[in-house]
Amino acid sequence: MRVFKSTYRDRDGKKCKTSKWYVETRDHLELVRRFPAFPGKKESEAFGRQIDKLVVCKMSSDPLSIELMRWLENIPSKMRERFVKIGLLDPSRAVSGKPLVEHIEDFRESMKAKSITNLQVNIVTSRVERIVKGCKFHHWSNISTTKIERYLADLRQQGLGKETSNKYVKAIRQFAKWMIDNERATTSPVAHLKTITVTRDDRRRLRRPLEADEVRRLLEATRAAGTRFGLSTPKGLALPSGL
After folding, report:
1. pTM for the whole thing?
2. Where are the domains of the chain?
3. What superfamily would CATH give domain 100-202?
4. By CB neighbour count within 10 A (0-12 exposed, 13-18 middle, 19+ buried), where does 185 fall?
5. Which residues pair with 185 in a beta bridge?
6. What is the pLDDT of residues 158-193, one digit of tens each?
7. Are 1 and 49 in contact (CB under 8 A)?
């Protein structure tokens, strides 16, 4: 790797140096590449070292480290696009540099395309959005199992039911699976995020079949109610025999 300032001649023919430093290095194809860096030499050297790490990962087919992923997310989009163009970066890794809110919107549209009801789409995406906002995740590499666990624990302290808490876990895991299935990510940061145990005492609504007397009272109340919320009682509604 070589870090240097390029030279040029101004209108008067005077030889000048550029304000920015440049990084020159060899890519995975052994081709010499030159990248514009920063006005500061130390920043430019650090930039060059990150590019060299990216080259090593490409040559060895190793997954990108969290450090490299975060670096890629924070560099200008044009630089990521150049890495993709020269084959140094897979397109999916460039996509992962998008803000999470944009990925979630794509996730929403993907579910709609699968004929999932709008109600279910809104429920799942709103849970993902609440976790992302509550944990202050901005990019894919920010997602942390520990932070999600702490956030949901705080919500339970504030009254969120355990069953609902588990639904939040399932929503974020569904989103992570979609990211991987669509080649926007290679690994899931929530692979080890688990649901919590829910006992019978934890359930707020215990579901059970109605007793015969409860069915009778329900039908009687329905028959006597008349029209409500634009719905009328079916004509000829009668109690089943035996009730």
Report:
1. 0.62
2. 2-95, 100-202, 208-243
3. Tyrosine recombinase, N-terminal domain (1.10.150.130)
4. buried
5. none
6. 999 999 999 999 999 999 999 988 878 778 899 999
7. yes
